[in-house]
Amino acid sequence: MHADSPDAETSLLSLIAGSGQRKSPTTADTGRWPWLQPWQQRSGNAAAKPPARCDGGGSTKMAAQAASYLATSPAYASLELNEQSARLVERMARDTVTIRAIRQGNWSQLAEQDIDSLIDGLARSFPNGDCTYLAHIEHTGIYMSPEEVHLVALLLRTPVCNVRELTLRNVSLTSAGARVLAKALKDNTRLRRLDLAENALNGAAIRRLCRKLNKVSLLQGLDLARNPIGPRGIAALFPQPDRKLSYFATLNGTGAPKRHRQHQHPHHSSTTTTTKSHGKLARAVPMHSFMPLVQLNVRDTALGPEGMQLLARLVATKRTLRWLNAAGNHGGVAGTEAMAHVLADPTLRLARLSLESNDIGVQGGKAIARALLTNVALTHLHLPRNNLKDEGVEAIARALCSNHTVRYLQLEFNGITQTGARSLGDTLRENNVLRGLQLKFNFVGDDGCRVLADALTANTSLEHISLCNNQLTDACTDYLVQALARNRALQHLSLAQNRALGPEGHRRLAETLLKHNTTLKSIRLDYEFPDWAPIYETVQASAVLRQQRQRQRQQHVIDPLLICQSN
Known about the structure:
Blueprint: H1 6-17, H2 60-71, H3 74-77, H4 83-103, H5 112-125, E1 136-140, H6 146-157, E2 165-169, H7 175-184, E3 193-195, H8 203-216, E4 221-223, H9 230-236, H10 279-282, E5 295-297, H11 304-317, E6 323-325, H12 332-343, E7 352-354, H13 361-372, E8 380-382, H14 389-400, E9 408-410, H15 418-430, E10 436-438, H16 445-456, E11 464-466, H17 476-486, E12 492-494, H18 503-515, E13 522-524, H19 533-555, H20 560-566
Parallel strand pairs: 1-2, 2-3, 3-4, 4-5, 5-6, 6-7, 7-8, 8-9, 9-10, 10-11, 11-12, 12-13
């Protein structure tokens, strides 16, 4: 194979890259995006060849690093190359060093000529644009200058780089940097996930960015957490309306505005209105969106009630959305009711929703409960720190008796007492779909724990329950012992931060686990008392015994195939 052919160049690049090449990216159910693995440098003794020059373009710093890279590469030392082929390898070594600097976030070492040289090399090696070396670009927690953002923009602007996920979290991204990114994303159709969290971007910067994204982008994941984007930032997530049309979406209803109602377009039955109070904001909110978002994180983005209403309208419009984090936005009752109205739609496919710290209150809790009666898609509902009280929790608990889709419910810091726990206990007796229940930092007490423990004896689905910091004492262990002896579904039990739960309660739980329970995989206790070691050892011994019992059950399972073979 000739050294100057495209196949030879691809082989040489793979040889130099070694184990640094990665497969296509995958995304976990929790919504977190994969982290980059550092580019692996080959190790070995110095080669007997003279130092490589690497002077075919690129900055002097990258050329020097590439020469050092080749000098310690055993693969390069074993090659017998003429001058032309050696220059080819040296250029690809320089590109490899550039890729490694990008993966490690060393943007300050790079110059524009390094990126240009890399793009040229990737275009030669991957003419079909299927390169995976730069599929993930991540830079977190380190300041990025506008010049460094410009280098990122060069990669985004070039399809051959095939950038699929871009994370620029907490890099002090300026308005100028956001403007550069916006221009680079204008014609980008390959980027699937964009993380710009914690960059102090305002609504104007997000609007400039989304104005480009909404045209041709196929972005599926967008993280804008902890940016003060406000309602205008949410409005920017909608595409800009066509100037030829004169009707727009609003927060409170549909129908053409009065001054345009006589000119209503015959092919647009779902027209919109513009109000005096929300006129400018409404002009940025049309009815349909092109960007097919699946995951959206707008946690702590200063939305307020107005922004939450816009966000609810966005959820209704984005039929592709499956995961939404709107925590910490203080949407109040008005924002919660707007979101609940959208959730009540049985055709909605949103599966995960977080409304933590949104001042929902009792009235908002009741609105969410009404939505759960008709919602058939929501599986994860997170409502911590919303002051739901017992009345709001009772409404949600009653709704879950007829809802068969919600599997994980978080209700931390909501002032729940034994009254709310009683309602949840009634739900656990009837609902055999719920798998996780978080009740940390409430006021359930021993009486509430008794009700929940009684419900666990009949429940066959709950796998995780947390009662941390709920004013439990040793008396609650009597109820839990009876439940654990009969329950065969619970796998994780958390009782930490209950200071009144003393050594006697710990001992009862440990003995019960050792004798009866065979399904519990983990139990969280504090052991904050003297002579805790024997009880801890008992709990650990029960875990070992449970593993042995599980192996025995697996060994005693009869394989029908073996029976057929023996007959």
